[in-house]
């Protein structure tokens, strides 16, 4: 079935993607959420003074990193002037600076900074993605937008089959449990609670295993206030590496 990108059901084409590259190629065409399409384009039309003259990406931002990753890091959604500007996840803003520096210390990132899509950053053994791929107003996607976007994450999980998923924040934690539950994974009731450092071992429909790890999100709200320190995030990625070791 052919679907046009404006169709609310367009994300269902994700199921036909045979590779991560193919998935990303379909994703960047998506216009299934009218509110988010309007917002991502409105932000691009009125850039911050410091980015005036730059051409914003203003489209869905695909995952970034290793298509054979053992560790998948799931955030919330692209930042209006970060990923929505540069076209790359966690690139060009303070959240990205904090996260990529930690990934570099953990040995997953080739360099400690993530400034532009062409800055040469390579992630090995790890991929970054989000349950919502377009920048939302106030960094707050609606439950409907999360559900509409879910087929992209569902297919990405199937194609990558990570052994560890790091959920950055409660939204990502809940989105992962919902997505895995819909795929037939055994999700305990009551659902495991999100906390920084929380671990939830989960079993898939074919007996596959995955550990969901919780971390506070790398937003400035957390990093500027000291709620999330570099050491705390480093500890999460050290644990992710331990859990994903063969
Ligand atoms: S948030 Fe997801 S489903 Fe909605 S328009 Fe963007 S890519 Fe498509």
Structural topology:
Blueprint: H1 20-27, H2 34-45, E1 64-65, E2 71-74, H3 83-86, H4 94-105, E3 126-129, H5 143-160, E4 164-168, H6 170-182, E5 199-203, E6 209-215, H7 220-223, H8 230-244
Parallel strand pairs: 2-3, 2-4, 4-6
Antiparallel strand pairs: 1-3, 5-6
Helix pairs in contact: 4-8
Iron/sulfur cluster binds at residues 11, 27, 30-33, 36-37, 60, 132-134, 145, 148-149.
Structural overview:
The chain is an alpha/beta fold. The chain contains 8 helices and 6 strands, in the order H-H-E-E-H-H-E-H-E-H-E-E-H-H. A 6-stranded mixed β-sheet has the order 1-3-2-4-6-5, sandwiched between helices. The longest helix is centred in the middle third of the chain and has 18 residues, at 143-160. The mean pLDDT is 96. Iron/sulfur cluster is lined by residues 11, 27, 30-33, 36-37, 60, 132-134, 145, 148-149. Iron/sulfur cluster (SF4) binds at residues 11, 27, 30-33, 36-37, 60, 132-134, 145, 148-149.
